[in-house]
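For the sake of transparency, this paper describes our internal protein records without simplification. The remainder of this section carries one protein's record, kept here as part of the documentation:
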Amino acid sequence: MTTKRFLFILIFVSIYPFSFSQENNVASYYVPAVHGTKLAVDVYFPEKHKNQKLPVLFEFTRYWRGKEDAKTGKPIASLSNRDKYFLDHDYILAKVDVRGTGASYGVRLGEYTPTEVKDAWYIVDWVVNQPWSDGKVGAYGTSYSGTTAELLCATQHPAIKAVIPGWSDFDVYESPSRPYGMLATSFIAPWSQYVDWLDQNSVEHLGVSVRRVREDVPTEAIKEHKNNPNVLETLTASPFKDSKFGDVKFEELDPLYWKKEISESNVPMLVLTSWLDAGTAEGTLLRLQHFTNPQKVVMMPTSHGGRSHASPFVVSDSIVAPVPSVTEQLILQRNFFDHYIKGENKDVEDWPTIKYYNFGEESFKQSDVWPPKGQERIRYYLDANGKLNASASEAPQGMDAYLVDFSVSTGTNNRWITQMGNHVLNLNNRNAADSLMQTYTTAPLEEPLQITGVPVISLSLSSTHKEGAIFVYLEDVDPSGKSRYITEGGLLLQHRKLSKNAMFNTIPYHSFKKLDASPMPMDTIKEISFKLHPTSIRIKKGHSIRIAISGADKDTFDKVPTEGIPTLSIYRNKTNKSFLELPIVK
């Protein structure tokens, strides 16, 4: 950084005085970022700080860095247990309201915009030039702030030594904006409303106010937020991956866009995620395979944020403690930061590259490569009488007609709605839902089968409507006939065209771009192939594998088409085959 720019920052900050709360050991600042836009920053110091230089951990958030009583202006304690844990172990914390949110100035052009990423460089540079900083920083977070932790690497600031992205986004279009190319108003609408209240400091709805930086409430900053785009309205008007989200293309709004810069930073990452949390598992595995940063991955069986257990072999309709436990998750994170930021030897290099939960066994496995060694892909073919067989049918004809039932649901505690803080529940008995879908089931297995990786479905399909969607659920069926959810995939049928992408050499890839989209020709057989979300499960001896096919998930995804009821014809004969392809590890 040039001396001229550094002096500019020092002068600029001196114009915007900070407040300091001795009670909470926290100081608040306005720090200028891109084009001088002032961002609100709270810096928390350990109780035993005593003016010693310490490393700083960042959390860049759009959910308010802090809050206060709206009537008295008194700060309200808002540190998480994780925040307190890091403070107790001699880290300074810096919490930042990203551009256009909280008490920060500016307008949001979208979520995770390139401007927001560049803002972070200025904030880091300001922090490392403060007398209390030892010049080394890291970043952590969950969900939005988990993504900003990874995006911090894209700034390539030399002070960044390690980051922990937790349950973070990777490809914002596919998860969580428009999964399968569809709109999921059930969780996008409440999220959109909530962040709008936050951005406008809606005390009426939130009951509290954003924490001020100086004595006055940041009225001028909040006024600028009025020009922020409404998330739901913007997503509704942006159906394609090459659409714009506000003033920015979807493709610019995620870590995938910054692949080159993030990889070149070589910043070590500890990636925490869950098999059953929206599309975060897929993003985690793609990052592991295609980004060159040193990475350690822990793939859990939990809800969003690792708050509770989600395995349908463990959880029914009540909350179960997560594995690893919350305490174990904290220790893991501290050891990672201590190793790379403080230089303490915690043997992190000896950790497995990926530690992943295996359903069915209900225990963890580990591997130093992904996919794991010994993986091969085998097919199970759809056949008559709802059977799923290891060999394809030789019958000249064979087809099942399914009238879409729009009452099918994965409930209100599924992998998508957990992004709004819900626990994952009620996936342990899918028989009632199965009865509303078209199902195909194998005979009971004579030997256990280990599935680890990305399943794929390929259907020879025709529809009576130009518009429609398809959902496929992979399930485990025990000897009593009880079925359990394992994973799922789906596709808005207008996005059926396959495209090429270096990240998906053996897996069907859909661009979701406007030029590749087209209505489904009615009553015409088309090959519809798509991936399911990755998973790992041991199907026990005597259990069966089932796929359940539907055209709706009423409690999550918007109805397609909005009028009429399609009949989906699934072909399964010598000429037109339909099959499930599973990644098997022997």
